[in-house]
Fold:
Amino acid sequence: MTTGQTSDSSEPAGTRRYRSLFISDLHLGTRGAQADALLEFLRECEAQTIYLVGDIVDGWRLRSAWYWPQSHNDVVQKLLRKARKGTRVVYVPGNHDEFLRGFYGTHFGGIEVCETAVHEAADGRRYLVIHGDVFDMVVRHAKWLAYLGDWAYEIALALSIRINWMRRRLGFTYWSLSAWAKLKVKNAVSYIGRYEEVLAAEAARHAVDGVICGHIHCAAMRDFDGFTYINTGDWVESCTAVVEHEDGRMEIIAWPAQSRTLNASRAAIAIGRPWRRAA
Structure:
């Protein structure tokens, strides 16, 4: 179990401290990555342990066209800086950053690369941390279809930007075509492959209490026969993360992104129902 740390008096006012942070699906290297929102989140949130739960860098997209603005480099540097200052940073690669799967057991700038991890929360519950793509029937058995879906999502994301430019001129609020399209497609994949149920079953197979994953870009927290399924969401549209409080309570938070919402509040808001141990 991770030992406690004292608060650094040099931290800026308003810093939010958690025991652990879980983030996934940043997709750095794509135009859809909300790097500025993520940087704001990382500056204002501190934790003893940070888990990078896959698809941090989008190797698929970078192979076809190089896109790496300064803000994406700043995210990488921020994570490396946290590791240098004593934060434990664990990187569990996903399918989009599968090029790192040949480096299990190594460290890059203090960041551990692992196939999976088991996180023990402050309340004693143990969680399997895994990206989750190996349980996606489309990625496992029809990889070409996964690439096609990724390409279609990029088109939807570009259209979303143009649609919202017009909506702002007409006085309407933000609406995400790309998030809607991704949710519909990925929900279909989840339904066909029984993604959430299979991940909960994987937790049972590893004799842990729950699983924390990413991959389907849909933040969620659910119980399946005593096993807890937690999905971190993404940093392309929803800008969500999972945080562990000092008492072991898990919570999904959504971080406002100025680039994608109108009049966004700076405070993180909780979504869903945090898991609590039954009385």
